Amino acid sequence: MSAVSVRFKGQRRFNQLVRSRPAAVAAGAADANLESAEEMARIVRQDIPVDTGKGRRSVAVTKGGRMTPDLPGGSVRIPLHAAAVTAGNKKAWYLHFLEYGTIDLPARPFFWPAWRKQRRRHRRRAREKLRLAA
Fold it and tell me: Where along the chain do its domains lie?
């Protein structure tokens, strides 16, 4: 695996902040990620097509450091200061067919539109939390 180098405006100040207050920065990032994940889960629950309600009930938020619910593709451990939104479980295994469609079923997306709706809000929230940590 090769190393990737990334540069951005304000990088020096950001690196100083992370080195000087790592716990505060990590807590701010974790808070912002969890708040955004909960907001996205609310949007997904509102937008998901409902027939039996299994899909809506399967939407879950997983905090960093924990395992996601048992999904048809398996579960994963979420990185420590991250958060994840999942839709689907063993009873609602069909949600990817709703999201992307099939030959006979037109797509009825609910997950990625929710992500797009709150992406900018998450960026603002994360910036604000990191600014408060400084």
Answer: 17-133
